[in-house]
């Protein structure tokens, strides 16, 4: 089977639409339709029911979904293994969301280079939706993510519980001051709890990238909710201050991998990642 057929099938399931899958794959919709026709002919079964809202799986499609990710993952791992550099036993592609690249991903990469020297590394940073797709397809072996969606064929491990805290450049602040408040969109769970605690808040500036929002606050002054690990150095240096008695929100960090990953490679890397996340390693 052409691996692009299975990959196209997975994209349609993920997006719920032939049109959105064609956009994600950067190919024409007719190409997506032709690939699915080819796949259905090879399997001898219809896989999708198309309707105005998009596409839904037939019973045969539901069955094929159990196997398609494994086809793609096996192919990606095969490509990795035939490209192993001399002197290394395997290649691991490690990924993270942008906001987790510093310091967690960087510290993990440093640990890998000193502790697992027989494993070659590829390091990749991306947005959450693309990153989870890359893990599901086998392009990324192990990724660090916030709130990853559960999918068939993925294994998700809790790494640590981050705290989102309200910080400000004004050392006298005691409440959330809307005049200089920068809203950082940490996802739907944060939005729900933020709205419950601050029902009247209507910030006129918002970001969807934590490091950028924090840089703005440090450069121009103001306040906002940020990860404790990212603001700790600024708190110690006096550039930021915790706003007392303000609610703090949980923001857990997870490691995501394929359930069929090569444990001889991913296992030691994941163990090291847990140690780095707990602060147990010396770099």
Task: Provide keyphrases for this structure.
D-Maltodextrin-Binding Protein, domain 2; alpha/beta; 7-stranded mixed beta sheet; 283 residues; 3 domains; single chain; Arc Repressor Mutant, subunit A
Write a structural description.
With 283 residues, this protein is of the alpha/beta class. It has three domains: 3-66, Orthogonal Bundle (Arc Repressor Mutant, subunit A), CATH 1.10.10; 71-159 and 252-277, 3-Layer(aba) Sandwich (D-Maltodextrin-Binding Protein, domain 2), CATH 3.40.190; 161-250, 3-Layer(aba) Sandwich (D-Maltodextrin-Binding Protein, domain 2), CATH 3.40.190.10. Helix content is 46%, strand content 23%. It is built from eleven helices and eleven strands. The strands form three sheets. Strands 3, 4, 5, 6, 9, 10 and 11 form a seven-stranded mixed β-sheet that branches. A two-stranded antiparallel ribbon has the order 1-2. Strands 7-8 form a two-stranded parallel sheet. The N and C termini lie far apart (45 Å).
State the shape.
Answer: globular
- Class by helix and strand content? alpha/beta
Distance between the terminal alpha carbons, to the nearest Å?
45 Å
Our count of domains comes out at 3
How many distinct helices? Answer: 11
Helix content bin: 40-55%
Mean pLDDT across the residues is 91
Q: Could you give a short account of the major beta sheet? A: 7 strands, mixed
The tally of strands reads 11
CATH topology of the largest domain: D-Maltodextrin-Binding Protein, domain 2
Radius of gyration, whole Å: 22 Å
CATH architecture of the largest domain: 3-Layer(aba) Sandwich
| Low-pLDDT residue spans | none
| CATH level-four homologous superfamily name of the largest domain | Periplasmic binding protein-like II
């Amino acid at each position: 089977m052409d691996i692009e057929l299975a990959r196209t099938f997975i994209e349609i399931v993920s997006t719920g639409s032939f049109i959105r899958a064609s956009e994600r794959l950067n190919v024409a919709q007719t190409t997506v339709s032709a690939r699915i026709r080819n796949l259905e002919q090879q399997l001898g079964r219809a896989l999708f029911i198309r309707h105005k809202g998009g596409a839904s799986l037939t019973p045969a499609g539901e069955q094929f979904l159990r196997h398609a990710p494994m086809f793609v993952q096996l192919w990606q791992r095969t490509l990795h293994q035939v490209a192993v550099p001399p002197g290394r036993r395997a290649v691991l592609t490690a990924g993270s969301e942008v906001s987790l690249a510093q310091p967690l991903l960087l510290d993990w990469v440093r640990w890998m280079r000193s502790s697992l020297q027989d494993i070659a590394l590829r390091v990749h940073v991306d947005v959450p939706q693309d990153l989870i797709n890359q893990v599901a397809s086998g392009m990324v072996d192990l990724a660090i993510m916030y709130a990853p969606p559960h999918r068939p064929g993925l294994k998700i491990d809790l790494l640590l519980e981050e705290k989102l805290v309200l910080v400000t450049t004004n050392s006298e602040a005691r409440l959330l001051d809307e005049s200089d408040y920068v809203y950082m969109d940490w996802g739907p769970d944060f939005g729900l709890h933020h709205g419950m605690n601050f029902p009247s808040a209507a910030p006129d500036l918002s970001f969807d990238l934590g490091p950028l929002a924090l840089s703005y606050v440090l450069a121009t002054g103001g306040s906002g909710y940020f990860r404790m690990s990212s603001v700790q150095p600024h708190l110690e240096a006096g550039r930021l201050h915790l706003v007392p008695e303000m609610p703090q929100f949980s923001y857990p960090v997870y490691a995501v991998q394929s359930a069929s990953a090569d444990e001889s490679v991913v296992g030691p890397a994941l163990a090291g990642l847990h140690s780095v996340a707990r602060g147990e390693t010396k770099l």
